[in-house]
Design brief:
disordered N terminus, binds zinc ion, 46 strands, mainly beta, Immunoglobulin-like, 39% strand, flat, SH3 type barrels
Length: 581
């Protein structure tokens, strides 16, 4: 399971029967998930646990229909809004727990929904740019907002709730229109620079009127002088919007400069459109925005890499877009004066095409001779260096390769838990260890991000991939589902990738395991995960089965099946690497 899912609750508490009478049950009744007093917005919940396979387990008096051979269970039950008590019994044993279903209800009376008045944080925008305000209030109300001399009438909208990203894992990602129109919105175009203060909202309903001020102020930036941001982080995290909910863009190498065109809380909008956290940059004032011309481009080979150098006058923002056959670099705030490009006879680059994108971008498209094995970017002063990875030089089997294995979780972080309480972290380590032995026996050098039950941060794991520059990086996990999932009927092999250079490996390993081991398929997913984001090498996160599926859990923890899985994974990896070399 990838740690981002809201299933963290699944880790901590095991509820075991209060009393075990001698000779009654071989296996005491226990519930591993959810913990008591669990809160969720899901419409149903699964109870993951185990008991004596020879005795029925009853939930609120009804026997659980499906149990695995060793007595594990994972039934789902619908939830009412509010408290839902569950009493599980097996013979004399009892386990009780309560699950509370939370539901957002529209505001009642003449009040705004708390925290819904926009902006919720201070924002800054350009003169002439659209500024939108909004609030959530009861249906059929009159809502307006005033800011200095501006008074804006807001119109009602039916809020459409988009399920979280994780909903795609249970196939429940359909937009949900939320009943009556309770979201009120309106926009205006402010003129000159200045601080407009915090908007005051007014709500009239049934002859009553109330007014309230938003938490955030609106500032209109002066067009000059320019405020410049320079990336001080090793790799600046650029996003499509001002919070970590927004998608990631190409990270900006240290030293990148761009003019700031907007603010929202502690996020800055840069002139090429991306947002970055203020803590990742330093700022200074300038009479002119950072722009550059570009003339010649050249490349050279160093051991294992082709370095392509882009001499610039300032470190401009970049983006990289990868497909199976190409890598496209875009330089922003850059005007070409290019007549000559030299790309040596190269083991990975078949051809480099470029074109100006008016008014101020330059685009370079690398066509691969074979397939991409990874890339890196850095600024050396104001020269951008794009390094393209050469394929490994193989000997017999996997000689000449370095495989990085990342056993997921560890230490305090248990990951998902099986019906008998087995933590995912333990199985990840065991299977990674078996896989290491297999790979080493084929001549590979294997690096593990952990070899014992310890905490290792995601950042440290990503740094290790950047430092080791493995041939491939595999993150080993076992899966679980969000609360609304169907634990009994969801099983199988899942693969997660992020960069196009890893898609083929993810799809190949998925198909190979499913076919060779006759395992169910859960699927191949594009996913923005810490261990799929490294671009130095094809990096794939493997979810090899579901810890919470009673039957699949027995396969997951069976020592012979673990060995067979490790051998099959090593076979598949060897096949893929040799095919792509
Ligand atoms: Zn995991």
């Amino acid at each position: 399971m990838t740690v981002r899912q809201p299933l963290i609750g699944l880790v901590a508490v095991t509820l075991t029967a209060t009393a075990v009478l001698p000779g009654q049950a071989e296996t005491p009744l226990r519930v591993v998930y959810p913990p008591d007093d669990h809160q969720t917005t899901a419409e149903q919940i699964f109870l993951i646990g185990t008991g004596d396979a020879t005795q029925p387990v009853l939930v609120n008096g009804e026997p659980i229909e499906f149990r695995s051979a060793t007595g594990h269970f994972a039934p789902s039950y619908p939830l009412e809004v509010g408290e839902n008590p569950f009493v599980l019994t097996q013979g004399e044993e009892t386990v009780t727990l309560t699950v509370t279903r939370l539901a957002q209800s529209p505001p009642e009376g003449t009040t705004f929904l708390e925290g819904s008045l926009l902006p919720t944080v201070d924002i800054a925008r350009q003169p002439g740019e659209l500024v939108c305000l909004g609030a959530i209030a009861p249906p059929n109300a009159q809502v307006s907002a005033s800011l200095r001399s501006e008074s804006i009438a807001l119109t009602p909208q039916i809020p459409v709730d988009l399920p979280p990203n994780s909903a795609v894992l249970t196939g429940q990602n359909t937009p949900q229109p939320q009943g009556a129109p309770t979201a009120y919105e309106g926009c205006f175009v402010p003129e000159g620079p200045g601080n407009l203060g915090a908007p005051t909202y007014s709500l009239s309903l049934n002859g009553q009127t109330t007014s309230q001020q938003a938490a955030g102020k609106v500032e209109i930036l002066a067009p000059t002088p320019f405020e410049i941001a320079q990336v001080t982080a090793n790799s600046g995290t650029a996003r499509t919007g001002p919070s970590t909910n927004y998608s990631r863009l190409t990270p900006l190498p240290r030293g990148t400069r761009a003019a700031i065109t907007g603010r929202e809380g502690d996020w800055l909008r840069l002139d090429y459109g991306a947002w970055i956290r203020a803590s990742e940059v330093e700022t200074f004032s300038s009479a002119a925005p950072p722009t550059s011309i570009i003339r010649s481009v050249s490349s050279r080979q160093i051991p294992g890499w082709t370095e392509v150098r882009f001499p610039l006058q300032t470190a401009v923002p970049i983006s990289l877009e990868q497909t199976a056959d190409t890598l496209t670099l875009t330089l922003y705030n850059t005007t070409p004066q290019t007549d000559t490009i030299y790309v040596d006879n190269d083991p990975v680059v078949e051809r480099l095409d470029w074109q100006p994108i008016l008014p101020d971008q330059a685009e370079y498209t690398f066509r691969w001779r074979d397939r991409p094995w990874g890339y890196q970017t850095r600024y050396e002063g104001t020269t951008l260096v794009l390094s393209l990875r050469h394929p490994p030089e193989l000997g017999r089997a996997l000689e000449g390769t370095t495989i990085l294995l990342d056993p997921g979780h560890g230490g305090e972080e248990l990951g998902a838990r099986g019906p008998d309480g087995t933590p995912e972290k333990a199985v990840n380590l065991r299977v990674s260890e078996l896989l290491r032995q297999e790979l080493e026996s084929r001549g590979a050098t294997v690096v593990m991000t952990r070899t014992e039950d310890v905490d290792v941060s995601l950042g440290a794991r990503m740094d290790q991939i950047a430092q080791v520059e493995p041939t491939v990086a595999l993150s080993i996990h076992y899966n679980a589902l969000p609360d609304s999932g169907d634990a009994i009927n969801t099983a199988g092999v899942g693969m997660f990738w992020y960069h196009a250079q890893a898609h083929d490996l993810a799809a190949f390993l998925h198909d190979y395991l499913v076919e060779t081991l006759d395992r169910p398929s859960y699927g191949v997913f594009w996913n923005n995960l810490a261990l799929t984001r490294p671009n130095t090498a094809p990096s794939v996160l493997l979810e090899l089965g579901f810890m919470i599926n009673p039957t699949e859990f027995e396969w997951i923890t069976d020592p012979a099946s673990q060995r067979q899985l490790a051998t099959t994974l090593a076979d598949g990896l060897e096949l893929w690497i040799r095919q792509h070399n």
